[in-house]
Amino acid sequence: MDDDKMFCTQCGAVMGEGDQFCPSCGAKADGAPNPYRESPASRDSESLNTTRILILLYGIFASVFGILALAGSTMLNDPSMQQAMIDAGFNVNMNDLAATVALESVVLLASGLCAIVSSYFVGKRTNYTLALVLCIAASALSLIMFPIGIVTLLVGLYVAYRVKSAQSLFS
Predict the structure, then answer these.
(1) pLDDT on residue 116
(2) Residue 1 binned pLDDT confidence (cut-offs 50, 70, 90)
(3) Cα distance between residue 83 and residue 65, in whole Å
(4) Which of these, 19, 31, 34, 164, has the minimum number of CB atoms within 10 Å of its CB?
């Protein structure tokens, strides 16, 4: 990056060293040190890196939680666990409960894996459409964790919006 270049704090256009106004948007250059000496594309790239890390963290969390919940669902078929549940006053069909927990676990694991693959493509800046679709799929699949799934869906859609906003950075 060329350290002599200055950028407008309003629109990010390149400004000459002696310019008092931005040649693109007309904003005044007050002569103070410009906190935006790096190009806007560089800031966009940094923002996309942050987005990739958020996607990856969710993917790891969802995958680990999905695996642990799947392992836990197998315990519900254990006769001693079923007896303990009956003794505790739970009047539930344990086979149905185990099947429901297993299904939710697999869907959560799928959500996490979609997020991890999306994070990979975002990091490589390739396969924009696939990265975006997988990010949205991870968000939608997270609804299995209702009511918390509503929050993860909204956050996931915001993250997908950030990926969409950075489409120009993908090859």
Answers:
(1) 97
(2) very low
(3) 26
(4) 31
pLDDT for 37 equals 53
Peptide bond into 147 cis (omega under 30): yes
Which position has the token pair 């007309």? 26
Q: Smallest Cα–Cα separation from 134: which of 27, 22, 25, 56?
A: 56
Distance, CA of 22 to CA of 94 (rounded, Å):
70
Phi, psi (degrees; rounded to nearest 5) at 14: -70, 135
Are residues 9 and 34 in contact, defined by beta-carbon separation less than 8 angstroms?
yes
Pairwise CA distance, residues 115 & 57, whole Å: 9
């694991």: which residue's tokens? 109
Confidence band, pLDDT 50/70/90 cuts, at residue 15: confident
